[in-house]
User: Fold this.
Amino acid sequence: MSTARALVFVLALTASNVAPAADESAAPPPDAAALNKLSARLALVDLKVDVQALPAGERAALAELIAASKIMDALFLRQVWAGNGTLLLDLIQDRSPLGQARLHAFLQNKGPWLRLDGERPFLPSVGPKSPAANFYPADATKEEVEKWLHALPAPARTAAEGFFTTIRRTPTGALQAIPYSQEYQGELARAAQALRNAAALTQQPTLRAFLQARAAAFLSNDYYDSDVAWMKLDASIEPTIGPYETYEDGWFGAKAAFEAYVSVRDDAETAKLARLAGELQEIENNLPIDPKLRNPKLGAMAPIRVVNQIYGAGDGNKTVLAAAFNLPNDERIIKQVGSKRTMIKNVQQAKFDRVLLPISRIALSPRDRSAVSFDAFFTHILMHELMHGLGPHDTTGPGGKPITVRAAFQQSYGAFEEAKADIAGLFALQFLIDKGVLDRGLEKSVYVTFLASAFRTLRFGGDAHAVGMALQLNTLLDAGAVHVAKDGTFSVDTAKVKQAVRDLTAEIMNLQAAGDGAKAAELLRTRAVVRPEVKAVIARLTKVPIDVEPRFVTAEKLLAERR
Ligand code: ZN
Assistant:
């Protein structure tokens, strides 16, 4: 599951878990104090990256990329709602405490609707948010657009249903598809110029190739070559800029929203990732399952990048901040050159500091909470991603014909696959600690940090990660590997946890190899239910922030150097 999709679950579920339960549709819009309280659910953090080691030309290229990204912010505002620009100017001029609270909420949400609360408007006289956003004519219905699309000849229909067109009316009232290169021509021409400026400043050939290709795509509306160039990026600067995710299109999930991530590669973590990836075959050869079920020759991994984010804009900077993403979404690119997973370390660090540590102070025993560490947290996240590639992926279906575990498990697949990646990730870390590849000092931290992050995942419930986590936590509780004290805090039993992790890794992988979908579903029904002692801890987390709101301090410095 892509992070963006997981985020949608978080947002949907946060609405019911965090907001007051009263009938909000009838409630008056929040006053300054109430709105400030809602905004404070995102803790302000300074997002910093050390760019001093970069040559002056590369730093200047970064500043151009930030300038181009700011245009994505303005374009995204327009895509969300045609009234956003006017409203923003009104809010900027309102210096009252209520006006300032509204401006802050507007900037967090990129519009007048609270994304964490089921898109409830926070301003009077703003109606409900249109699921059509500003991708379709405001007076059109979904049925009208659907009927028109179905009647179009094949090539025109492909364009009209594609990522990179809006649907508008002609002067006579008929519908037509307008390419983004035309709809947003002025802004995209400016963004393309900034990308070409950056291309001229960098000394890195794959970065220059991507920037030139993406600048050309902004003008031609053909993103194919630039997506391929993005997959081939091998540079200290990792920019992601353009129209990507389609969640803002509530009608068809078809139209891509503009976003930008300006990041620099984290060389130390990238080296660690390569070291871990180099051990994968040996980990597979030592999985706690029947040797016949192990894969003697693992295939090539999808590329993973570890970066630190300097700037984020548009769809990539609204409410809950992405800590990782999988792109591109274009199936043609995925088939031909694959997709790339980007993990954003400094955003993970911010979430760890402002969300996970406060959770650990409430959920864990005093002895355990002192061992919670970011190194353990982030190394386990990396291992989780790598472990998706290990273990059985194929099984036999009815009549003995070969099918994938995904096909056999159907709706239970996601929860088991996420649980497998988590628990086998712990198994793999222990294996590498025992082998001396990872530091022995990590041993204690790995398990207690995992326990703290279990509560972070379970807090909003619902998605595959949370169901998979409930299964793991219950199994560890039953095995005595996790213990609940009289005061309600949780702790790890270090004598029992290693064996419990091995056993659960084996249980999940054996079930996947057997392809028993009915048994998998039954296991989720009986063992993935959040227990009262866990719910009691979650109920005490109301004061812990939901996420972070970034202040891009390094970006501001780089822009100041540019002026
Ligand atoms: Zn996963």
Q: What stands out?
A: The first helix runs from residue 3 to 18.
